[in-house]
Amino acid sequence: MHRALTLATACAALTLLPLRPAAAAEAATDSPAPREPGRHSVVHREQAVIAAPAERIWDVLVDLPSYQDWNPWVLRADGEVRPGATVHVTVALGTHVMPAEHTVLVVEPNRRFCWRDAGWNASFVYGQRCRTLDPRADGTVLVTNELLLDGIFSSATDLVMGTALRKGLAAETRALELRAESMH
Fold this sequence. Notes:
By secondary structure, the protein is an alpha+beta fold. 33% of the residues lie in helices and 34% in strands. It has 5 helices and 7 strands, in the order H-H-E-H-H-E-E-E-E-E-E-H. It has helices at residues 7-16, 22-29, 54-62, 67-70, 154-182, and strands spanning 42-50, 74-79, 86-93, 96-108, 112-117, 126-135, 141-150. Helix 3 (54-62) crosses helix 5. It is globular and about 45 Å long.
């Protein structure tokens, strides 16, 4: 007897399995370096040229308690900005607001800030965000805000949540530009 296994039935079957112990889940995703895209990866990227010094943009990015004042995607953030630290956020995905937990991967002052998902969803899909600052000769800074989804469920995750993720990424990038350019 031949059975066709669809993505929906595979996902349903996974929900019946016990989640891996936290230590096993951490071991599977705990790496000090950000992942590079692979064959199952989905990457969303937003860029903005910001008329502000890299130091000012950096200060906005790492002032987690102030996210609530300017960031329409990450409504609240708290934690330490150091590799390995946990950052707790409240994120808006479309009309849905939910808590999320991240582990900081990279802190290169005035250059790069990355974190990865560390909550329950990391057992099914790896999510990582890197914000990169590239100063330009004219005094502006090219800011790249990149979201990487990785793993065998990355395409399914993107199908279900991709629009909200892309809109959130774009809104955050635009808000960062406005915030950094308005500060003196």
